Amino acid sequence: TSILASTYLGGSSHDRAFAVDVTPQGTILVAGDTQSPDLPVTPGAFDTTPALAPAFVAVLDPTLSSVLHCTALGGSGGDTPCGVAFDAFGDVIVAGSSLSFDFPTTPGSFKPGYSGGRDGFVARLDGTLSTLAFGTYLGKGSSEFLRGLTVDAGGRAIVCGSTSSSNFPVTPNALDPSFSAGDAFLTQFSRDGSTLLYSSFIGGSSWDDGYSVAAGPGGEVYVAGETHSPDFVATPGAFDTTFDTSSFNTEGFAMGFDLCRGAISHYGQGCLGSGAIVPTLSVSGCPSSGEALTLQVSGAYGGAPLLLALGGGQSAVPIVGSCAAQIFPWNGLAVTAALTGQGAGNGSIEWTAALPVPAPAGIVTLQAFIGDAGALDGVAATAAVAINLVD
Protein backbone atom coordinates (compact mmCIF):
# COMPACT_ATOMS: atom_id res chain seq x y z
CA THR A 1 0.00 0.00 0.00
CA SER A 2 1.31 3.42 -0.91
CA ILE A 3 0.12 7.02 -1.12
CA LEU A 4 -0.36 7.98 -4.75
CA ALA A 5 -0.43 11.71 -4.06
CA SER A 6 -1.43 14.18 -1.35
CA THR A 7 -1.74 17.95 -1.39
CA TYR A 8 -2.92 20.93 0.61
CA LEU A 9 -5.71 22.90 -1.04
CA GLY A 10 -6.58 26.40 0.09
CA GLY A 11 -5.08 29.76 0.96
CA SER A 12 -3.84 31.72 3.97
CA SER A 13 -6.93 31.31 6.17
CA HIS A 14 -9.43 28.59 7.06
CA ASP A 15 -10.27 26.06 4.31
CA ARG A 16 -12.21 22.80 4.41
CA ALA A 17 -12.90 20.20 1.72
CA PHE A 18 -16.11 18.20 2.09
CA ALA A 19 -16.69 16.34 -1.16
CA VAL A 20 -14.72 14.66 -3.94
CA ASP A 21 -15.41 12.93 -7.25
CA VAL A 22 -13.21 11.33 -9.91
CA THR A 23 -13.73 11.13 -13.68
CA PRO A 24 -12.95 7.94 -15.64
CA GLN A 25 -9.84 9.79 -16.87
CA GLY A 26 -8.68 10.30 -13.28
CA THR A 27 -9.33 14.04 -12.97
CA ILE A 28 -10.14 14.99 -9.38
CA LEU A 29 -13.03 17.26 -8.38
CA VAL A 30 -13.13 18.78 -4.89
CA ALA A 31 -15.65 21.06 -3.18
CA GLY A 32 -15.47 22.79 0.18
CA ASP A 33 -15.64 26.16 1.87
CA THR A 34 -13.02 28.82 2.46
CA GLN A 35 -12.23 32.02 4.31
CA SER A 36 -9.04 32.59 2.31
CA PRO A 37 -8.97 35.73 0.14
CA ASP A 38 -6.06 34.13 -1.75
CA LEU A 39 -7.83 30.88 -2.61
CA PRO A 40 -6.05 29.68 -5.80
CA VAL A 41 -8.85 30.54 -8.23
CA THR A 42 -7.90 30.28 -11.88
CA PRO A 43 -8.18 32.94 -14.61
CA GLY A 44 -11.58 32.92 -16.26
CA ALA A 45 -13.26 31.19 -13.34
CA PHE A 46 -16.91 31.92 -12.64
CA ASP A 47 -16.03 33.80 -9.43
CA THR A 48 -12.45 34.94 -8.86
CA THR A 49 -13.14 37.00 -5.72
CA PRO A 50 -13.66 34.76 -2.68
CA ALA A 51 -15.78 36.42 0.00
CA LEU A 52 -16.18 35.40 3.62
CA ALA A 53 -16.80 31.63 3.81
CA PRO A 54 -18.08 30.94 0.31
CA ALA A 55 -18.06 27.52 -1.24
CA PHE A 56 -15.37 26.62 -3.72
CA VAL A 57 -14.97 24.03 -6.43
CA ALA A 58 -11.61 22.87 -7.79
CA VAL A 59 -10.51 20.48 -10.53
CA LEU A 60 -7.07 18.92 -10.09
CA ASP A 61 -4.99 16.73 -12.36
CA PRO A 62 -4.75 12.99 -11.53
CA THR A 63 -1.38 13.41 -9.79
CA LEU A 64 -2.65 16.29 -7.60
CA SER A 65 0.28 18.35 -8.86
CA SER A 66 -1.72 21.18 -10.41
CA VAL A 67 -5.04 22.97 -10.06
CA LEU A 68 -6.61 22.89 -13.53
CA HIS A 69 -9.64 24.99 -12.60
CA CYS A 70 -10.84 26.60 -9.39
CA THR A 71 -13.71 28.96 -8.62
CA ALA A 72 -15.36 30.45 -5.60
CA LEU A 73 -19.10 29.86 -5.45
CA GLY A 74 -21.41 31.49 -2.96
CA GLY A 75 -22.68 34.64 -1.37
CA SER A 76 -21.95 36.78 1.64
CA GLY A 77 -23.58 34.67 4.34
CA GLY A 78 -21.74 31.36 4.27
CA ASP A 79 -22.21 28.34 2.02
CA THR A 80 -21.22 24.73 2.69
CA PRO A 81 -21.14 22.06 -0.03
CA CYS A 82 -22.25 18.55 0.82
CA GLY A 83 -21.51 16.92 -2.50
CA VAL A 84 -19.94 17.45 -5.90
CA ALA A 85 -20.03 15.35 -9.06
CA PHE A 86 -19.09 15.27 -12.71
CA ASP A 87 -21.95 14.26 -14.99
CA ALA A 88 -21.68 12.26 -18.21
CA PHE A 89 -21.25 15.45 -20.25
CA GLY A 90 -18.29 16.84 -18.32
CA ASP A 91 -20.29 19.41 -16.37
CA VAL A 92 -19.90 19.86 -12.62
CA ILE A 93 -22.81 19.76 -10.18
CA VAL A 94 -22.41 20.93 -6.59
CA ALA A 95 -24.98 21.00 -3.79
CA GLY A 96 -25.05 22.08 -0.19
CA SER A 97 -26.55 24.48 2.32
CA SER A 98 -26.54 28.29 2.21
CA LEU A 99 -27.01 31.16 4.62
CA SER A 100 -26.51 33.69 1.81
CA PHE A 101 -29.33 35.83 0.51
CA ASP A 102 -27.15 36.51 -2.55
CA PHE A 103 -26.06 33.01 -3.56
CA PRO A 104 -25.66 33.10 -7.37
CA THR A 105 -28.91 31.79 -8.81
CA THR A 106 -30.07 32.01 -12.42
CA PRO A 107 -33.29 33.26 -14.02
CA GLY A 108 -35.66 30.40 -14.75
CA SER A 109 -34.19 28.14 -12.09
CA PHE A 110 -36.56 26.34 -9.75
CA LYS A 111 -36.12 28.83 -6.89
CA PRO A 112 -33.95 31.86 -7.61
CA GLY A 113 -34.97 33.65 -4.39
CA TYR A 114 -33.73 33.07 -0.84
CA SER A 115 -36.31 31.91 1.73
CA GLY A 116 -34.42 33.02 4.82
CA GLY A 117 -32.79 30.90 7.47
CA ARG A 118 -30.78 28.09 5.92
CA ASP A 119 -31.66 27.02 2.37
CA GLY A 120 -30.27 24.25 0.27
CA PHE A 121 -28.57 25.06 -3.03
CA VAL A 122 -27.82 23.18 -6.25
CA ALA A 123 -25.66 24.55 -9.04
CA ARG A 124 -24.28 23.31 -12.35
CA LEU A 125 -21.07 24.70 -13.87
CA ASP A 126 -19.30 23.82 -17.08
CA GLY A 127 -16.22 21.60 -16.84
CA THR A 128 -13.84 24.57 -16.79
CA LEU A 129 -15.76 26.19 -13.90
CA SER A 130 -16.14 29.37 -15.92
CA THR A 131 -19.89 29.40 -16.59
CA LEU A 132 -22.85 28.87 -14.27
CA ALA A 133 -25.46 26.90 -16.22
CA PHE A 134 -27.95 27.11 -13.36
CA GLY A 135 -28.07 27.94 -9.69
CA THR A 136 -31.09 27.45 -7.46
CA TYR A 137 -32.10 27.44 -3.84
CA LEU A 138 -34.10 24.57 -2.36
CA GLY A 139 -36.22 25.19 0.71
CA LYS A 140 -38.96 27.20 2.32
CA GLY A 141 -39.39 29.38 5.37
CA SER A 142 -37.55 27.39 8.02
CA SER A 143 -34.29 25.46 7.69
CA GLU A 144 -32.91 22.92 5.22
CA PHE A 145 -29.69 20.92 5.37
CA LEU A 146 -28.58 19.31 2.11
CA ARG A 147 -26.38 16.35 2.98
CA GLY A 148 -26.18 14.13 -0.09
CA LEU A 149 -25.89 14.54 -3.87
CA THR A 150 -25.86 12.15 -6.79
CA VAL A 151 -26.30 12.63 -10.53
CA ASP A 152 -28.21 10.10 -12.62
CA ALA A 153 -27.34 8.90 -16.12
CA GLY A 154 -29.35 11.72 -17.68
CA GLY A 155 -27.43 14.43 -15.83
CA ARG A 156 -30.21 15.17 -13.33
CA ALA A 157 -29.19 16.24 -9.82
CA ILE A 158 -30.71 14.27 -6.94
CA VAL A 159 -30.27 15.51 -3.37
CA CYS A 160 -31.27 14.43 0.11
CA GLY A 161 -31.15 16.01 3.53
CA SER A 162 -33.45 17.24 6.27
CA THR A 163 -36.01 20.01 6.53
CA SER A 164 -37.96 21.71 9.29
CA SER A 165 -40.17 23.54 6.77
CA SER A 166 -43.74 22.25 6.75
CA ASN A 167 -44.19 23.81 3.29
CA PHE A 168 -41.05 22.26 1.76
CA PRO A 169 -41.82 21.70 -1.96
CA VAL A 170 -43.13 18.22 -2.77
CA THR A 171 -44.41 16.87 -6.09
CA PRO A 172 -47.82 15.26 -6.75
CA ASN A 173 -46.15 11.82 -7.04
CA ALA A 174 -44.46 12.11 -3.62
CA LEU A 175 -44.29 9.02 -1.43
CA ASP A 176 -45.09 11.23 1.56
CA PRO A 177 -46.49 14.72 0.88
CA SER A 178 -47.09 15.52 4.56
CA PHE A 179 -44.63 17.08 6.99
CA SER A 180 -44.27 15.54 10.43
CA ALA A 181 -41.79 16.74 13.03
CA GLY A 182 -38.65 17.41 11.03
CA ASP A 183 -38.32 15.14 8.05
CA ALA A 184 -35.76 13.79 5.67
CA PHE A 185 -36.39 14.54 2.00
CA LEU A 186 -35.47 13.29 -1.46
CA THR A 187 -35.55 15.70 -4.42
CA GLN A 188 -34.76 15.20 -8.11
CA PHE A 189 -34.23 18.19 -10.41
CA SER A 190 -34.66 18.44 -14.15
CA ARG A 191 -31.36 18.63 -16.00
CA ASP A 192 -31.65 22.41 -16.45
CA GLY A 193 -32.56 23.01 -12.80
CA SER A 194 -35.89 24.60 -13.64
CA THR A 195 -38.26 21.93 -12.34
CA LEU A 196 -38.61 19.36 -9.60
CA LEU A 197 -39.22 15.97 -11.20
CA TYR A 198 -39.68 14.33 -7.82
CA SER A 199 -39.68 15.61 -4.26
CA SER A 200 -40.96 13.93 -1.12
CA PHE A 201 -40.70 13.97 2.63
CA ILE A 202 -39.22 10.80 4.13
CA GLY A 203 -39.97 9.79 7.67
CA GLY A 204 -42.46 9.11 10.40
CA SER A 205 -43.82 10.92 13.39
CA SER A 206 -40.47 11.97 14.84
CA TRP A 207 -37.25 13.47 13.47
CA ASP A 208 -35.55 11.96 10.41
CA ASP A 209 -32.52 12.91 8.30
CA GLY A 210 -31.14 11.79 4.94
CA TYR A 211 -27.34 11.66 4.76
CA SER A 212 -26.43 9.99 1.49
CA VAL A 213 -28.03 9.24 -1.88
CA ALA A 214 -27.00 7.09 -4.86
CA ALA A 215 -28.50 6.53 -8.30
CA GLY A 216 -28.79 3.02 -9.76
CA PRO A 217 -28.62 1.96 -13.43
CA GLY A 218 -32.34 1.89 -14.18
CA GLY A 219 -33.95 4.87 -12.48
CA GLU A 220 -33.47 3.47 -8.98
CA VAL A 221 -32.40 5.88 -6.25
CA TYR A 222 -31.29 4.85 -2.76
CA VAL A 223 -31.22 7.03 0.35
CA ALA A 224 -29.56 6.29 3.69
CA GLY A 225 -29.89 8.20 6.93
CA GLU A 226 -31.15 8.10 10.48
CA THR A 227 -34.62 8.01 11.98
CA HIS A 228 -36.10 8.61 15.40
CA SER A 229 -39.54 7.47 14.20
CA PRO A 230 -40.96 4.13 15.40
CA ASP A 231 -43.44 4.36 12.50
CA PHE A 232 -40.84 4.91 9.78
CA VAL A 233 -41.76 3.09 6.55
CA ALA A 234 -40.43 -0.48 6.49
CA THR A 235 -41.53 -2.83 3.71
CA PRO A 236 -42.66 -6.45 4.23
CA GLY A 237 -39.75 -8.87 3.91
CA ALA A 238 -37.13 -6.19 4.63
CA PHE A 239 -34.07 -7.07 6.69
CA ASP A 240 -35.45 -5.32 9.79
CA THR A 241 -39.02 -4.05 10.10
CA THR A 242 -38.98 -3.27 13.83
CA PHE A 243 -37.81 -0.05 15.45
CA ASP A 244 -35.36 -0.81 18.26
CA THR A 245 -36.38 1.25 21.28
CA SER A 246 -33.19 0.26 23.10
CA SER A 247 -30.93 2.14 20.67
CA PHE A 248 -31.53 5.57 22.21
CA ASN A 249 -34.52 5.95 19.87
CA THR A 250 -32.27 6.20 16.82
CA GLU A 251 -32.01 3.76 13.91
CA GLY A 252 -30.28 3.93 10.58
CA PHE A 253 -32.36 3.43 7.46
CA ALA A 254 -31.88 2.56 3.81
CA MET A 255 -34.68 3.13 1.31
CA GLY A 256 -34.97 2.55 -2.43
CA PHE A 257 -37.14 4.56 -4.84
CA ASP A 258 -38.09 3.95 -8.45
CA LEU A 259 -37.79 7.37 -10.10
CA CYS A 260 -38.05 6.13 -13.67
CA ARG A 261 -40.69 8.26 -15.37
CA GLY A 262 -40.90 6.38 -18.67
CA ALA A 263 -43.02 3.30 -19.26
CA ILE A 264 -42.85 0.06 -21.24
CA SER A 265 -45.93 -1.95 -22.22
CA HIS A 266 -46.55 -5.00 -24.39
CA TYR A 267 -49.61 -5.28 -26.60
CA GLY A 268 -51.13 -7.18 -29.52
CA GLN A 269 -50.49 -10.71 -30.72
CA GLY A 270 -47.58 -12.31 -32.49
CA CYS A 271 -47.57 -14.75 -35.43
CA LEU A 272 -46.80 -18.44 -35.01
CA GLY A 273 -43.42 -19.71 -36.14
CA SER A 274 -41.97 -23.20 -36.51
CA GLY A 275 -43.16 -25.62 -33.86
CA ALA A 276 -46.28 -23.47 -33.35
CA ILE A 277 -44.22 -21.15 -31.17
CA VAL A 278 -44.80 -17.39 -31.04
CA PRO A 279 -41.45 -15.61 -30.59
CA THR A 280 -41.12 -13.07 -27.79
CA LEU A 281 -39.82 -9.49 -27.78
CA SER A 282 -38.98 -8.14 -24.33
CA VAL A 283 -37.68 -4.69 -23.38
CA SER A 284 -36.29 -3.87 -19.95
CA GLY A 285 -34.72 -0.82 -18.36
CA CYS A 286 -35.76 2.78 -17.80
CA PRO A 287 -36.84 4.65 -20.97
CA SER A 288 -35.37 7.99 -19.96
CA SER A 289 -32.44 10.13 -21.09
CA GLY A 290 -29.06 8.50 -20.53
CA GLU A 291 -30.47 5.24 -19.19
CA ALA A 292 -29.88 1.86 -20.87
CA LEU A 293 -32.53 -0.32 -22.48
CA THR A 294 -32.08 -4.03 -23.16
CA LEU A 295 -34.05 -5.59 -26.03
CA GLN A 296 -34.27 -9.37 -26.39
CA VAL A 297 -35.93 -11.57 -28.98
CA SER A 298 -36.31 -15.22 -27.98
CA GLY A 299 -38.31 -18.30 -28.88
CA ALA A 300 -37.67 -17.81 -32.63
CA TYR A 301 -36.20 -20.15 -35.24
CA GLY A 302 -32.44 -20.31 -34.69
CA GLY A 303 -30.27 -18.94 -37.49
CA ALA A 304 -33.20 -17.22 -39.21
CA PRO A 305 -33.04 -13.59 -40.42
CA LEU A 306 -34.70 -10.99 -38.18
CA LEU A 307 -36.05 -7.52 -38.83
CA LEU A 308 -36.76 -5.29 -35.82
CA ALA A 309 -39.07 -2.52 -36.99
CA LEU A 310 -39.64 0.78 -35.18
CA GLY A 311 -42.91 2.64 -35.46
CA GLY A 312 -44.76 5.56 -33.98
CA GLY A 313 -48.24 4.11 -33.50
CA GLN A 314 -50.17 1.03 -32.46
CA SER A 315 -52.36 0.40 -35.50
CA ALA A 316 -52.40 -3.07 -37.07
CA VAL A 317 -51.76 -3.56 -40.80
CA PRO A 318 -51.64 -7.02 -42.48
CA ILE A 319 -48.23 -7.76 -44.00
CA VAL A 320 -48.59 -11.34 -45.25
CA GLY A 321 -51.48 -13.77 -44.90
CA SER A 322 -52.90 -13.50 -41.40
CA CYS A 323 -49.77 -11.93 -39.89
CA ALA A 324 -50.04 -8.23 -39.06
CA ALA A 325 -47.65 -5.45 -38.12
CA GLN A 326 -48.97 -3.56 -35.10
CA ILE A 327 -46.69 -0.53 -35.08
CA PHE A 328 -48.19 1.72 -37.74
CA PRO A 329 -47.62 4.38 -38.75
CA TRP A 330 -44.17 2.92 -39.43
CA ASN A 331 -41.38 5.50 -39.38
CA GLY A 332 -39.16 3.61 -41.81
CA LEU A 333 -36.54 2.62 -39.23
CA ALA A 334 -35.49 -1.02 -38.88
CA VAL A 335 -32.59 -3.16 -37.69
CA THR A 336 -31.67 -6.44 -39.37
CA ALA A 337 -29.74 -9.31 -37.80
CA ALA A 338 -29.40 -13.09 -37.75
CA LEU A 339 -30.66 -15.03 -34.75
CA THR A 340 -28.28 -17.23 -32.77
CA GLY A 341 -29.09 -20.86 -31.98
CA GLN A 342 -30.51 -23.63 -34.15
CA GLY A 343 -33.99 -24.99 -34.70
CA ALA A 344 -37.53 -24.12 -33.70
CA GLY A 345 -37.85 -21.97 -30.59
CA ASN A 346 -34.09 -21.82 -29.98
CA GLY A 347 -33.23 -18.58 -31.77
CA SER A 348 -32.48 -15.44 -29.80
CA ILE A 349 -30.66 -12.11 -29.93
CA GLU A 350 -30.10 -9.28 -27.46
CA TRP A 351 -29.13 -5.63 -27.72
CA THR A 352 -28.30 -3.13 -24.96
CA ALA A 353 -28.01 0.55 -25.76
CA ALA A 354 -27.96 3.82 -23.81
CA LEU A 355 -30.57 6.39 -24.75
CA PRO A 356 -29.27 9.76 -25.93
CA VAL A 357 -29.43 12.91 -23.84
CA PRO A 358 -31.85 14.45 -24.32
CA ALA A 359 -34.01 11.49 -25.32
CA PRO A 360 -36.61 12.14 -28.04
CA ALA A 361 -39.72 12.27 -25.87
CA GLY A 362 -42.78 10.41 -27.13
CA ILE A 363 -44.07 6.94 -27.96
CA VAL A 364 -41.89 4.49 -29.89
CA THR A 365 -43.30 1.09 -30.88
CA LEU A 366 -41.29 -2.02 -31.73
CA GLN A 367 -42.05 -5.38 -33.32
CA ALA A 368 -39.76 -8.16 -34.54
CA PHE A 369 -40.34 -10.19 -37.71
CA ILE A 370 -38.52 -13.46 -38.44
CA GLY A 371 -38.12 -15.16 -41.79
CA ASP A 372 -39.28 -18.67 -40.87
CA ALA A 373 -39.97 -21.26 -43.58
CA GLY A 374 -41.92 -23.35 -41.07
CA ALA A 375 -44.34 -20.53 -40.26
CA LEU A 376 -47.78 -20.54 -41.82
CA ASP A 377 -47.02 -17.65 -44.13
CA GLY A 378 -43.23 -17.89 -44.03
CA VAL A 379 -43.03 -15.11 -41.41
CA ALA A 380 -43.19 -15.31 -37.64
CA ALA A 381 -43.62 -12.20 -35.51
CA THR A 382 -43.52 -11.13 -31.90
CA ALA A 383 -46.20 -9.13 -30.16
CA ALA A 384 -45.43 -5.40 -30.11
CA VAL A 385 -43.90 -3.20 -27.43
CA ALA A 386 -44.73 0.45 -26.75
CA ILE A 387 -42.04 2.57 -25.08
CA ASN A 388 -42.97 5.94 -23.62
CA LEU A 389 -39.66 7.85 -23.75
CA VAL A 390 -39.12 10.83 -21.45
CA ASP A 391 -36.22 13.25 -21.23
* Averaged pLDDT: 94
Q: How many beta-strand elements?
A: 24
Q: Which class of secondary structure composition applies to the elements?
A: mainly beta
- CA-to-CA gap between the ends? 44 Å
The helix-strand sequence is: EEEEEEEEEEEEEEEEEEEEEEEE
User: What characterizes the major β-sheet?
Assistant: 6 strands, antiparallel
Point out poorly predicted stretches.
none
What Rg, in angstroms, do the CA atoms define?
26 Å
Helical residue percent band: under 10%
Strand portion, in percent?
over 45%
Overview of the structural elements:
With 391 residues, this protein is mostly beta strands. Helices cover 0% and strands 50% of the residues. It has no helices and 24 strands. It has strands spanning 15-22, 28-34, 55-60, 67-73, 79-86, 92-98, 119-125, 132-138, 144-151, 157-163, 183-189, 196-202, 208-215, 220-227, 251-258, 263-267, 280-285, 292-302, 305-320, 323-338, 343-354, 362-371, 379-381, 384-389. Strands 16, 19, 20, 22, 23 and 24 form a 6-stranded antiparallel β-sheet that branches. It has a 4-stranded antiparallel β-sheet with strand order 1-2-3-4, with no helix packed on it. The protein is elongated and about 80 Å long. The model has no long low-confidence stretch (mean pLDDT 94).
Salient structural properties:
four-stranded antiparallel β-sheet
Task: Write a brief structural summary.
0% of the residues lie in helices and 50% in strands. By secondary structure, the protein is mainly β.
Task: Give the topology, please.
Elements: E1 15-22, E2 28-34, E3 55-60, E4 67-73, E5 79-86, E6 92-98, E7 119-125, E8 132-138, E9 144-151, E10 157-163, E11 183-189, E12 196-202, E13 208-215, E14 220-227, E15 251-258, E16 263-267, E17 280-285, E18 292-302, E19 305-320, E20 323-338, E21 343-354, E22 362-371, E23 379-381, E24 384-389
Antiparallel strand pairs: 1-2, 2-3, 3-4, 5-6, 6-7, 7-8, 9-10, 10-11, 11-12, 13-14, 14-15, 16-24, 17-18, 18-21, 19-20, 19-22, 22-23, 22-24
